[in-house]
Amino acid sequence: MIQFSTLYREDWRSLAGCFNLVATYYYVLQQDIVLHLAHLITPEMHMQLERKFPNFRSKLEIERAFHFRVWDTGDDNTSQVRFRPAACQFVDEFFEWNIDCILPNNRYEYEGYGSVHNCIRYSATSTRDGHRWYLGPVDRGLRRWDKYSGEIRQCLTHCLQLIAEEYPEEFGDHVFTCLPHWRGKYPAHDFLGLRFETWAIPSRSQVASAMDRLGIPDFAWKLPDTWIYEENPLSLGPPEFDDEDPPFDFEFRIREKIRFSAAASAIRFIGLLSTTQRTSIRTIVLHEDSASVNDISLHGYGLVPFLKKKNPALQIQRRIDIINTLHTVCHVATAVWEVFLHYETLIPNLSRWLLNAAGASNEGIPVGSLTLLLETDDNPKVGTDIFQQRVHYCIARDQAWPKCLAEGLLQPLTDSQVEVLRGRFTLDDDFKNAIVQLVNQSSTVFRCGFDPGVPQGCEAFVNTARAIIPGDIWEYWSITEWLNNYINLARTEEDKDATLRQYDIQTSQECILSWVSIGALWETQDDR
């Protein structure tokens, strides 16, 4: 048996972070091109795509209508910002928030590239009609087409290839609109070759080349090594800025530990083996014990080739720690060790793990050869509590939703308010079916290493809705019920360990001592 864990190397921190930035930005561009050229997709092209991705067409129609309603998608690009490349606001805002606003001498805007793949914005900060949308309940309540599974991300590559082949001129025009520095320099078809597999561990030169093609400035390489402060200081001090005074008025500062997945490590390792060595392996266990770059739930697809003709006797089990891979760390100064789980991230990420595992198992591999085990860091009770308090709770709320609508319990709300709540509280049917399989232990693909709890009835939600005063309905569902969706795991030592897996953390005193040590070292070297 060979075992792998998530891979962190300090000297690969920038590689992993910039790879995640490149891959995510490319995915943003893929979405934008397909959504803008979707009208060119013929029925024959849709038939080709639907053979493998049966839900793509319906999701495309919904997302395209949403995209053109929410974003400023016009061709007028009058921005004078230094690095901003795109005409469509969807692409433009991703570049703005993750690159443009982080200038070489203004790095305090950097918030990390380790999870940038989770930071594709739900909607614009300002819409085409001039209405300002702040990131908040309205934004997050809108369901994205790739929220619950990786079907869209996988399909886009095939879809773009079909569009590029059938309509090369239109494809080229939109590539050049997104990447204007390509005009007269690169053929538009080269865009298709910039894609990385989600499970790749590329070389620095490969990532640097992609960054150059995508117009990402070189200083981005330095950002993953930058310390992040709980508040933006006036100056960052050494080693960020040698000419400024250090910011002594902070309590903590953090720096990401950016990882590659255990699956990516295994794929890289197996790929280096000879055929004889590869076929002699019988069992591989992958411990996905921390968050990793580039949509980790899709990395199981990279294992499929090793489970087909190359080694049909091979058994691979992915073990995911649902706390360490799905949690949110609260890293403000007063609560640096607190770990929260919120349904807004827990449910979609859990869904992606389950549905993508099921998808990979349907790629023509032996039944049971690629499995997924959900774990909770040697504490099964925590896993049961998470499922009972959040997963089953949210499913019960989803079931209550149509009953509340049928009884007219939401009538005082506007159509837009109902749309927000529907997007926030209704769940994907495939996800709900996967949870049923977990509870019944009927899946050959995934199971829990803890008691997954029992389903809840929805009557409590309906009865609560009946008792709400009509004037308080929006406040209850948008605020009270919203705030009820956090779980503070209240595990002091375990939370500390989980946080330290994600971040280097220094107090202000430790930071000052480290600078003093560096200064003493420089003086010693000068004396020599």
User: Which term fits the overall shape?
Assistant: globular
Uncertain ranges: 75-86, 125-141, 234-246, 331-335, 524-528
Radius of gyration: 24 Å
Number of domains: 2
Summary tags:
about 525 residues, three-stranded antiparallel β-sheet, 11 strands, about 45% helix, about 10% strand, globular, disordered C terminus
How would you portray this structure in words?
The chain has 528 residues and is α/β, with parallel strands linked by helices. The chain has two domains: 10-226, no CATH class; 262-490, no CATH class. The protein has helices at residues 13-37, 43-50, 56-70, 89-100, 137-140, 151-166, 168-178, 204-214, 262-271, 275-279, 304-307, 322-326, 343-361, 380-406, 415-425, 429-440, 459-467, 473-483, 492-502, 508-527; strands at residues 2-5, 228-229, 252-256, 283-288, 315-321, 328-329, 339-342, 370-375, 446-448, 486-488, 503-507. The strands form three sheets. Strands 1-4-5-8-9 form a five-stranded parallel sheet. A three-stranded antiparallel sheet has the order 2-3-11.
SSE layout and pairings?
Layout (H helix, E strand, L loop, with lengths): L1 E4 L7 H25 L5 H8 L5 H15 L18 H12 L36 H4 L10 H16 L1 H11 L25 H11 L13 E2 L22 E5 L5 H10 L3 H5 L3 E6 L15 H4 L7 E7 H5 L1 E2 L9 E4 H19 L8 E6 L4 H27 L8 H11 L3 H12 L5 E3 L10 H9 L5 H11 L2 E3 L3 H11 E5 H20 L1
Parallel strand pairs: 1-4, 4-5, 5-8, 8-9
Antiparallel strand pairs: 2-3, 3-11, 6-7, 7-10
Helix pairs in contact: 1-4, 1-6, 1-7, 1-8, 6-7, 14-17
Produce a short descriptive summary.
The chain is of the alpha/beta class and 528 residues long. It is 47% helix and 9% strand. It folds into two domains: 10-226, no CATH class; 262-490, no CATH class.
